[in-house]
Amino acid sequence: MRNSVLTLAIMLLLQNHATGQQPLPTASPDSVGLSSQRLERIGEVLRADIAQDRLPGAVVAIARKGKLVYFEAFGFLDPKSGAKMTRDAVFALASMTKPLTSVGVLSLCEQGKLRINQPASDYLPELRKMSVSVGGSLDSTRPAMRSVTIQDLLRHTAGLPYGSASGSALEKRYAALDSLLDFSAHQEFLESLTRLPLYREPGTEWNYGYGPDVAGLIIEKVTKQTLGQYLNSILLRPLQMTDTGFELSAEQRRRVAKPFAVDPITRQPQIIPLESPFQCGGGCAFSTASDYLRFGQMLLNKGQLDNARILGRKTVEYMTADHLGPEVDATALRNHPMLNGYGFGLGVAVRKGPGVAGIMGSTGEYSWGGAYGTYFWVDPREDLVVVFMSAVQGPLTRVYRQVINTLVLQAIVD
Predict the structure, then answer these.
(1) Which of 247, 241, 323 is nearest to 284 (CA)?
(2) Nearest to 168 by CA among 202, 209, 203, 135
(3) Whether 273 and 405 share a structural domain
(4) Last residue of a domain, one of 223, 246, 261
(5) Residues 188 and 326 in one domain
(6) C-alpha–C-alpha distance, residues 31 and 69, integer Å
(7) Taking a C-beta distance cutoff of 8 angstroms, is the pair 159, 207 a contact?
């Protein structure tokens, strides 16, 4: 009896989504092999953390077998004002922009306008005749043995890392480029980037960085549109992702999720930027849990959702395969406990086996998250898409990726 009441309550909540429109057809969790009772643990854990001022708020959306089975908002949209979180809250995607950019690049490949293994310098001449740092030095360099390819940009083997403010002189210079993504024009960013030597030889080492931002510039060069305009035409509008983009409307601003003023762990001030003059392909978009769930379901469906065909089946299979061959040093990826056991595709991490990694999952599952508290994964074996949206920074982003992973997967009972 208790489970029946709970199932009915969940169905009623789904039918009363704040926007009046569901991202997917709805079903009860139990009808698709998820325990309604065990899913309650999500709310129990998140509400406890909200009560302890660890988490301002969150939205969780879960789809299984093509059905929306869980869609809940927790805590506060704005912890300062006390405004309650809503399911249509808008979040800064940060690096969850990268999979969107990868789809944009692959759509141009499908049109014959790009080739994945093509030198990026064919479109951005500034990337020609790049030098490579010797031993991480800023001053000691040699000519690159080969060109940076578009594949390198999307799989993070271009030698263009985000850098570190506490690292070598070269790493500090790369880290300083982040300010240009927020405040400067595209050309200034590209010229500043190409004045530095590559951190590593192209195609030899995985280093998370600016590759997708450069890929976004290539999209703009090829299409003669802004990145946002192009993604809107081939992805966002066809998928009815009406709350995703790079420019906020006045109405969307009222739905923006805000962080605590001070990080609960580091005690450092927190600010989450939402807009930039630079529509960067690596981290400048915003979205909602509802919209991003539709994006994830499209990928799970091999490129199609409803009547919209975004990519071909083989293209999605290629995007979500591991692109780090034996010639690529993936130490930087393996050093992260959550990602040990993963490879990397075009914009997403790809799980190579059920074990090894610090979180649960299935072989072939793919995922990525953002520095401002967003995370998603698609598990083809389990026919599952999960989106977690919050407004947190620093160490807590990694904590909640692990927490939500366990809370969802422990509820699978079929």
Answers:
(1) 247
(2) 135
(3) yes
(4) 223
(5) no
(6) 9
(7) yes
CATH of the domain at 135: 3.40.710.10
Question: In the predicted model, is pLDDT for residue 11 greater than 80?
Answer: no
Q: Closest Cα partner for 369 from 208, 172, 231?
A: 208
Average pLDDT value for the chain: 92
Nearest residue to 238 (alpha-carbon basis) of 404, 104, 401:
104
Retrieve residue 307's tokens: 């009547």
Domain that holds residue 173: 102-223
Residue type, 290: S
Mean predicted confidence (pLDDT) in 49-66? 97
Side-chain-side CA neighbours of residue 17 (13 Å): 24
Residue 20 binned pLDDT confidence (cut-offs 50, 70, 90) = very low
Residues 41 and 184 in one domain: no
Q: What is the pTM of this model?
A: 0.93
Q: What are phi and psi of 379, to 5 degrees?
A: -120, 95
- Sequence-ordered list of residues with C-beta below 8 angstroms from that of 320, at least 6 positions apart, any chain: 299, 345, 346, 348, 350, 364, 366, 378
Q: Which of 189, 223, 257 is the last residue of a domain?
A: 223
Counting the structural domains of the chain, the total is: 2
Q: Has residue 414 been placed in a domain?
A: no
DSSP assignment string, 237-266: TTTT-TT-BSS--HHHHTTB----SB-TTT
DSSP string, 70-136: EEEEEEEEETTTTEEP-TT-BEE-GGGGHHHHHHHHHHHHHTTS--TTSBGGGT-GGGTT-EEESTT
